[in-house]
Design a protein that fits this description.
The protein is α/β, with parallel strands linked by helices and about 375 residues long. It has helices at about 1-10, 20-30, 85-105, 130-135, 190-210, 250-270, 290-300, 320-325, 355-370; strands at about 35, 45-50, 55-60, 115-120, 140-155, 160, 165-175, 180, 220-225, 230-235, 235-245, 270-280, 285, 305-310, 315, 330-335.
């Protein structure tokens, strides 16, 4: 709990998790382990145990550019930055798992090798997951698991599902331009504000009609700006938004489709459109066998009435990168205590800290269950 509160009070942004990584490395070294920092020093890899078969466990280190609005003694000390997604909990859980595994390995009771991955830049479009993989995070790995805070679940409850678990998350930026002019004579120019409105409303609607409804595609605008004067039609307007997609095939087609729709809608208004589509993280597709193992482990660790089939999450998660290489599962860890439910990515988000102990038990049981069974022939993730 003390580690979690320290991390919560001292958040670091994506790609700059240097002090967080150093703290993790110190804690692991104190347990007799030999952690290895990423070349930039903002992430940690650590081996526990011995053997040819490796299970990778991932946690994420970065915080969000969100002001911490809570009145607690562990409130963020960094203005405009907070652990509003629970990565401080993920890191603390994985540290606890690492210490428990080190104790088991010291007694000769760990029947394999576990690699702890403390990943930077989960919240960045340029995810730190590929960097972890390039650094050997999945070398000889037969499976990968991770947990994520779930405020929609009570503390002590785990959510697991097979197949599509979380969406791909891309970013799109749009710049519309026109000659500008007087608001009294829109027929002599291009009404940029009207054009922006058309793109805002029509493109998401058309997108749903140009893709299979089962693909789970969603375009949501996050920013929009045009003009500075009430009686002048501006020469430029800008939008940015996120595209979330569950289906892998639809994800591969999304950049061309979204770009063409924006240009088509803008062209009908006379505006010129420049579109920048930035790839984000791939979908998270839990392997059937891994999900089954995680469910059985959750029953053992938490109790048969403390495990549910979780809902599909349209938010993105870089854990999908790992599942492109090995089978595995992302498990939802209930964090809701008494009082109203507050979603992640809000400045007043907090967790019931009993979730940390539950998360450690859950991940430890998952590792031991996987090693206890022969999963060498587990199939690739379902499509």
């Amino acid at each position: 709990m003390a580690v979690r509160r320290h991390l919560h009070a001292h958040p670091e942004p994506s790609h700059q998790e240097f002090e967080t990584a150093a703290l993790v490395a110190r804690e692991l070294e104190a347990a007799g382990l030999q952690p290895r920092l990423l070349p930039r020093g903002n992430g940690v890899l650590c081996e526990v145990g011995e053997g040819d078969r490796v299970i990778a466990l991932r946690a994420d280190l970065d915080a969000l550019p969100v002001a911490d609005l809570k009145d607690v003694d562990y409130r963020s000390t960094v203005p405009g930055l907070a652990h509003a997604c629970g990565h401080d909990v993920h890191t603390t859980v994985l540290l606890g798992v690492g210490l428990a595994l080190a104790e088991l390995a010291g007694r000769g009771a760990l029947p394999g090798r576990v690699r702890l991955l403390f990943q930077p830049a989960e919240e960045s479009p340029t995810s730190g997951a590929p960097e972890m993989i390039s650094a050997g995070g999945l070398k000889d790995a037969v499976a990968a698991f991770g947990v994520h805070c779930a405020p929609h679940l009570p503390v002590g409850v785990a959510g697991v599902r097979s197949g599509q678990a979380a969406a791909a998350a891309d970013r799109v930026e749009v710049a519309l331009t026109g000659p500008g002019g007087h608001t009294a004579r829109p027929h002599l120019t291009v009404d940029l504000v009207h054009a922006l409105g058309r793109v805002i409303v029509n493109v998401p609607s058309l997108l749903h009609r140009r893709t299979d409804p089962r693909a789970g595609i969603s375009l949501m605008w996050g920013t929009g700006q045009a003009g500075h004067v009430y009686n002048a039609i501006p020469v430029e307007g800008r939008l940015s938004g996120s595209v979330h997609i569950l289906n892998r095939e639809a994800w591969s087609e999304a950049p061309e489709l979204v770009t063409s729709l924006i240009r088509e809608v803008a062209a009908a208004t006379g505006a010129r459109a420049e579109v920048r589509y930035q790839r984000g993280v791939p979908p998270v597709v839990n392997d059937r066998g891994a999900a089954h193992a995680a469910t059985a482990a959750a029953v053992s660790a938490l109790g048969p009435d403390r495990v549910v089939e979780d809902q599909v999450n349209l938010a993105g998660n870089g854990f999908g990168y790992y599942l492109e290489h090995v089978p595995g599962a992302l498990i939802q860890l209930g964090t809701a205590g008494p009082g109203p439910v507050v979603d992640v990515h809000r400045g007043d988000f907090d967790v019931d800290e009993r979730a940390i102990e539950a998360g450690v038990r859950l991940m430890l049981h998952t590792v031991l269950a996987w090693f206890a069974d022969d999963h060498a022939e587990v199939g690739r993730r379902p499509q």
